[in-house]
Amino acid sequence: MPFGFSQASGRLSQQGVATPKTFVAAVAEAEVVYPKGTIFPSAHEANLSANYRPLPENYGEVVQKMRHFQVENKLPIHLKGGPRDMMLFGTTVAICGLGLLGCFKFYYDMSFPKKA
């Protein structure tokens, strides 16, 4: 990379990308040749992979749940679980609303002094 003194910054800086004057064809790369008998490990061959982990027993259920939650149906992820999730979300919103009302009541009470 070319560097030079910059009058603007007062120090050495990169002078920009240098472009070649002419473009030539890229050099052809040699094809990779594997010797006969080369075995490429797959994800679940215990004897060939150091990071082998057996699939869980409920792998099919997990895949089905993944498919269920990835369906494009305009619902946020926290509501895709069904009516139970809707109930939990509604309860959370209600508790947050009560907390907000409590904050405003506190602000109102603290804004006006008590009469003695």
UniProtKB/TrEMBL annotation:
Stored InterPro entries: Cyt_c_oxidase_su7a_sf (IPR036539), Cytc_oxidase_su7a_met (IPR003177)
Membrane listed as a keyword: yes
Keyword Transmembrane assigned: yes
Transmembrane segments: 86-108
Cellular component per GO, a single term: mitochondrial inner membrane
Biological processes per GO annotation: mitochondrial electron transport, cytochrome c to oxygen; mitochondrial respirasome assembly; regulation of oxidative phosphorylation
Signal sequence annotation: none
PANTHER family the UniProt entry points to: CYTOCHROME C OXIDASE POLYPEPTIDE 7A (PTHR10510), CYTOCHROME C OXIDASE SUBUNIT 7A-LIKE-RELATED (PTHR10510:SF13)
Protein family per UniProt: Belongs to the cytochrome c oxidase VIIa family.
Protein's UniProt name: Uncharacterized protein
Source organism (scientific name): Meganyctiphanes norvegica
